[in-house]
């Protein structure tokens, strides 16, 4: 049984925590000195080169033990016979020096053996980075106050455990919510790579072994000699952590006029000059980066060039790179995210079928060092999708799963969504190929179809922000990604709690509270963004952040819902629809084909039904929509309150930062709830049986107030504003006033104001009662005025419009209000932002609406 020491963090709230150290804080444990005798006194790292992961392991052990327990250990590079040592190295080096272990562990590449049972602790890797992984596993125990004696070996589930970073050469990051690139600026690789090294250290501690440093929407100028030299520098700083560099390629680079490289007139993958071009460039890269991991390729997708231009197959395209890489030991991650524009008037058209159409016929044609990298679902990182059937359809090809750590469609780090439970629904899904157990995780490990290559690609998109990905709590997703890529059988809550203890502390109430919030977060987000398999009902044409369900339909992008006045959902059956269900092996196909056996949470993914269709739950589709959206938003309200119970139990810096986000999420979840409920209420004409939708007794619509210098504004999309209407100042330079007399009974209320915070202006608002100010704020994504913390930035993709992305709420609690008081809001516009207001809610305590 695991024994956690009854230790707690020293004065946790005192130390400022920016988040930079993430889960590698090595926070001092109170009373750590009393355990010095059970800790080793010497560290023996069986390598003397500072570029070696084994050397780094020695340093890391010294630093960790010193910091956590206050015990100083010396690092040696050969065993001096002293007992009470830790020996870290490769199994081979260990065996050379001390002879074989009595029971040699069965290790594969990157695996390790950790034995703390004897007088000498052994941390032995199959290779050098395996030794570092074992070191981090041991330090993780120590940092959690776990001094249990263990002796076990651990091997990775799959060889490929990479991150993908969508960094552009200009320094921006596509779908990044944490600042700019750590390694690119102004078209080149930056000189200061400190953060890159720190990132590699973090990644090593969770078993990640390569980083693809540039966006899959690639840029040919990555291949200039100057940038290739820069890649060498990145590789040099990451190598001591066992993290390799990979790069994304732009398929038509040979014709792109890359400075310092030949310029061809074709990029046909079968043309000899093109083959020679890539062979040559690949050779140049390996000169700078002898251990380059490989290439990632997005071809013929979303405007990216590819082999189809020349009537070559995707396999011919992939193999072009495979052959160039093969002599150097590199691999090609070839993305399955390929689809064409479609016409929604065609009932049988379906973007979800595209991968099967493109890749299934090519199975067996990919070179052995090509891995097909498949997003977890057939569409695009949605809040819920069925497992991509491609995992079942290319048994002769290597496969990897692509997960998205950055929360593009899942709240962009401004909504807390712990993703491991979502990923587990896919990884644990049994595709029943040939009526046999065929878990997705066993397909990507290579085990199911006997491949030695396969694994995981996680789109992370870390930026320069100290929190790495934009919010402290969202880092649980990066941690879980690494842990699951190493061992997908791990339980998501177990992984989460490891992360909480390491990142915050082991106080039981901290662990319990953060666990509850995190474990409830994905279901809540699904409920208020898009339930019943309806995808994240966000604005797919703009920011992918706030609600905008109608953007899903009448586009060529194929993320359709087919909602009309009476029906909704994609008919993906074989019998009457797009046939997508038939892409699964027979047992699964039969389940999804039949509405009676399709789970409610994927109903609208597979079936087109009336709003009045009865779910397994007994509820109608439309009522379930209303109920779940209300339930999800209600759950999100509790997160902020639960978070408040952590005051003083964690450091103030992270406490306030996350509180700001939880308060924001509580408000924005209401925007989601109302927008989706109103939209479907409007389109279906079916009222909410519980009379909530469109019925808000506590609200005062801004447009119904007495306006001076303000005018009504019809919001697009209509559902993004209460009563479809907001108010804006008459000009962008003059102040507006909205006022009304309070008619509700005198008492204490929470006063919530819904307004819009557009990008491109910082309007100022003052709310008063009888000319006594009860609150004021600037619409700049900062916390409420009066709190002591500095400015905070949410970091989601900005919107310049008055819409569901910019809609937000501020609440002033416990305000004494008397009937007959004059409630007044004065809005001062700024920049493009005309101080837009939606409504004021006077909420009796305990009610949120
Ligand atoms: O969903 C889309 C994203 C794009 C991304 C693309 C992909 C890098 O919105 O930003 O492009 O997926 O995965 O290629």
TrEMBL record:
Active site: 302, 380, 408
Alphabetized UniProt keyword annotations: Carbohydrate metabolism, Glycosidase, Hydrolase, Polysaccharide degradation, Secreted, Signal, Xylan degradation
Domain Alpha glucuronidase N-terminal span(s) in chain numbering: 22-138
A UniProt-annotated Pfam family: Glyco_hydro_67C
Signal sequence region: 1-16
Gene Ontology annotations of biological process type: xylan catabolic process
A GO cellular component annotation in the UniProt record: extracellular region
Family of the protein in this entry: Belongs to the glycosyl hydrolase 67 family.
Protein name, as recorded: Alpha-glucuronidase
Gene it is expressed from: aguA
């Amino acid at each position: 049984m695991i024994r956690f020491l009854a230790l707690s963090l020293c004065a946790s709230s005192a130390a400022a925590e920016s988040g930079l150290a993430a889960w590698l804080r090595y926070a001092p444990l109170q009373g750590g000195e009393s355990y010095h005798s059970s800790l080793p006194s010497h560290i023996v790292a069986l390598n003397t080169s500072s570029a070696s992961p084994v050397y780094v392991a020695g340093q890391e052990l010294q630093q960790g033990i010193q910091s956590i327990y206050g015990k100083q250990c010396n690092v040696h590079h050969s065993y001096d016979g002293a007992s009470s040592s830790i020996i870290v190295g490769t199994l081979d080096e260990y065996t050379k020096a001390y002879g074989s272990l009595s029971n040699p562990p069965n290790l594969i590449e990157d695996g390790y053996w950790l034995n703390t049972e004897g007088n000498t602790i052994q941390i032995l890797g199959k290779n050098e980075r395996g030794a570092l992984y074992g070191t981090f596993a041991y330090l993780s125990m120590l940092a959690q106050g776990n001094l249990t004696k263990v002796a076990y070996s651990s091997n990775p589930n799959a060889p490929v455990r990479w991150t993908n970073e969508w960094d552009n050469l200009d320094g921006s990051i596509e779908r990044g919510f944490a600042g700019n690139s750590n390694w690119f600026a102004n078209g080149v690789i930056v000189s200061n790579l400190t953060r890159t090294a720190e990132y590699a250290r973090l990644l090593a501690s969770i078993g990640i072994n390569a980083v693809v440093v540039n966006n899959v929407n690639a840029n040919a100028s990555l291949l200039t000699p100057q940038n290739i030299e820069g890649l060498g520098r990145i590789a040099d700083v990451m190598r001591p952590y066992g993290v390799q560099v990979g790069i994304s390629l732009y398929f038509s680079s040979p014709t792109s006029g890359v400075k310092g490289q030949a310029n061809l007139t074709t990029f046909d993958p079968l043309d000899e000059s093109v083959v020679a071009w890539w062979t040559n460039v690949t050779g140049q890269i390996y000169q700078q980066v002898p251990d380059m991991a490989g290439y990632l390729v997005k071809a013929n997708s979303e405007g990216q060039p590819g082999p189809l231009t020349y009537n070559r197959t995707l396999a011919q395209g992939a193999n072009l790179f495979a052959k160039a890489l093969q002599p150097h030991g590199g691999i090609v991650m070839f993305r399955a995210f390929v689809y064409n524009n479609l016409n929604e008037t065609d009932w049988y058209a379906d973007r979800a079928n595209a991968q099967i159409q493109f890749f299934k016929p090519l199975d067996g044609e990919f070179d052995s060092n090509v891995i097909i990298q498949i997003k977890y679902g057939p569409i695009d990182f949605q809040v819920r999708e069925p497992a991509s059937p491609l995992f079942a359809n290319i048994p002769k090809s290597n496969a990897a799963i692509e997960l998205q750590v950055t929360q593009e469609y899942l709240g962009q780090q401004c909504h807390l969504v712990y993703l491991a439970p979502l990923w587990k629904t896919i990884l644990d899904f049994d595709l029943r190929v040939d009526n046999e157990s065929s878990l997705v995780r066993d397909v990507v490990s290579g085990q199911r179809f006997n491949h030695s290559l396969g694994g995981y690609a996680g789109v992370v998109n870390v930026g320069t922000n100290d929190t790495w990905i934009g919010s402290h709590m969202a880092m649980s997703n990066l941690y879980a990604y690494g842990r699951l890529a190493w061992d997908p059988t791990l339980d998501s809550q177990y992984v989460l709690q490891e992360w909480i203890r390491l990142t915050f502390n082991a106080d039981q109430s901290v662990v319990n509270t953060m666990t509850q919030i995190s474990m409830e977060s994905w279901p809540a987000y699904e409920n208020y963004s898009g339930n019943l398999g309806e995808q994240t009902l966000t604005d797919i044409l703009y920011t992918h952040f706030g609600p905008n369900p109608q953007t899903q339909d009448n586009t060529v992008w194929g993320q359709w819902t087919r909602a009309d006045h009476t029906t909704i959902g994609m008919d993906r059956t074989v019998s009457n629809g797009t046939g997508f269900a038939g892409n699964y092996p027979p047992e699964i196909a039969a389940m999804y084909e039949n509405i009676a056996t399709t789970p409610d949470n994927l109903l609208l993914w597979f079936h087109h039904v009336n709003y009045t269709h009865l779910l397994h739950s007994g509820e109608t589709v439309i009522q379930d929509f209303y109920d779940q959206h209300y339930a999800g938003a209600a759950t999100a309200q509790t997160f902020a309150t639960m978070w408040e119970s952590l005051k003083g139990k964690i450091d103030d810096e992270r406490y306030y930062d996350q509180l700001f986000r939880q308060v924001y999420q509580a408000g924005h979840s209401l925007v989601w709830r109302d927008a989706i409920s109103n939209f479907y209420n409007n389109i279906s004409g079916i009222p909410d049986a519980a009379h909530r939708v469109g019925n808000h007794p506590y609200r005062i619509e801004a447009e119904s107030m007495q306006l001076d210098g303000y005018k009504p504004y019809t919001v697009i999309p209509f559902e993004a504003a209460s009563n479809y209407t907001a108010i804006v100042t008459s000009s962008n330079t003059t102040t507006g006033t909205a006022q009304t007399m309070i008619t509700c009974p005198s008492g204490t209320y929470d006063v919530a104001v819904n307004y819009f915070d557009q990008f491109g202006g910082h309007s100022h608002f003052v709310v008063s009662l009888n000319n006594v100010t009860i609150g004021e704020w600037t619409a700049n994504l900062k916390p409420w005025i009066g709190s002591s913390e500095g400015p905070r930035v949410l970091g989601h993709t900005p919107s310049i419009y008055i819409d569901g992305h910019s809609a937000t709420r501020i609440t002033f609690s416990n305000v004494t209000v008397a009937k007959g008081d004059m409630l007044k809001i004065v809005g001062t516009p700024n920049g493009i932002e005309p101080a837009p207001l939606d409504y004021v809610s006077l909420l009796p305590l305990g009610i949120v609406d």
